[in-house]
Amino acid sequence: MEDARAYMEGTGPAAEGLFRLLNEYGWHKLRAIVGLIKVKTRDELEIQKESISSKDIAREIAAGSVLQIAYVAIARYAKPLEKPKNALFFESEQNRLIREYPELRPRTKKLELPLQFCVGRDIGHLPLGMIVYAGRNQYNHFYEDKRLSVVNELVFNHLHAMNPNPKNGLSFDLKPGRLFSYSILAALGWVDTSRGLGIEAYKRDMAEILGVDL
Fold it and tell me: How far apart are CA 179 and CA 57, in angstroms?
C-alpha cells in the first residue's frame, strides 16, 4: 500500500491547510455575527450580512476540497472485498421502496451502491465512504440545474431523515444552488470540536480505510 501512503503524504500539507482555514472561517464568521449587534444603519447591516455569506461560501469550498482529496484516495486506493451488512440492508430497503412506489423514481429500476466506496466505519447505517462519495459529488455539481443521481440523493435523504434539524445552520435538505460540503464534514466528524481536531479524525478514518499508518 505504498502508493496510498505516498498519496496521503503528498496531499497532507494541502489537507492540513484546508483544516486550518476551516477553523479560521469559523472564528471569522463568529466575529461577523457579533458585528451584527453593533450595526447602526441599513448599509452597515447589509455589509455585515454579506460578510457572513462570504465566510459561509469560503467554508463550503474548503470543506469540499477536503472531500475531493478523500474521494480520490478512496477511488484509487481503497480495497473493499464485499459490501458490509448495513450497506446491503440500505440497498434492499431502497429497492423495496422503488418496487412499491415506482412513481417516486420512474426511471430507476434498481439501486446499487458503488462497492469501491462501501468502506470505513458506519455513519447512520451507511459506510463512511458513501458519505464522502455523495458529498463530493454534490460539491462538484451543485451549480447544475439537473438533479443529482439517485444514489447521491438517497444518501442526502437518509442523512436528512436521521437529523432533520442539525445545529449551527447545517443541513442535509438538498436545494438547488446550495453547497452542503461543511454539513457533510460535520456528519463525518471531521470538524473541530471540544472533543478533538478535524484533521486528526480525518487522518484516523483515512488510515483505516487505506490500511496505512499516518
Answer: 8
Identity of the residue numbered 95: N
Return the amino acid letter for 39. Answer: V
The whole-number pLDDT of residue 52 equals 58
Question: Mind listing the pLDDT tens digit for each residue in 29-78?
Answer: 555 555 556 666 666 555 555 555 567 788 899 999 999 999 999 999 99
Q: How many CA atoms lie within 13 A of 90 on its CB side?
A: 22
CA 64/CA 117 separation, integer angstroms: 17
pLDDT for 185: 95
**Residue 154's CB: how many other CB atoms inside 10 A?**
23
CB 84 within 8 A of CB 65: no
Strands (E), 64-190: 122-123, 126-127
